[in-house]
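Progress against Task 2.4 (sequence-to-structure conversion) is shown through the following example record, which the project officer requested during the mid-term review.
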Amino acid sequence: MAGGRLTGIARHDRPRGPMETVRSVGVTREFGVAGDARGAVRAGKVPRRQVSLIEAESWAAAMAQLGLSDEQALPWFTRRANLLVEGMRLPREPGSVIAVGPSLRIEVTMECDPCSRMDEIMPGLRMALEPDWRGGVLGTVLSDGEIAVGDEVRIEQ
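Structure tokens generated for the chain above:
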């Protein structure tokens, strides 16, 4: 399967907190995306939502469904995803492995279902993100890595 590129990285330090975009970041099995509130593994728990990824093309399709021009479109991190991938289709099957950069490996655990928060941001956004996993995928970190905007993204299995 053809690879894509990492075109955005974002994180938030607390639930419902503001999103911060960064050019590079460490991602670990213990904490997920460094500085992100969602990634830390709690004692006795199996992480399923450490890292969220969304396709740039899916975000653009959701914006188009809402009737927003490129100039009106909301920034991708409005989705509250950690990683924006461009030029490839993310796997829609739990168990698939996504590689980012030289060493980060993320196992897909589930679809990132859009929640009511999306309609708080913009009415209709939740529905625009529902078809075909447009809201992205969630995963758990299999191997640590330092990643940066521009890194290659590929499916390993």
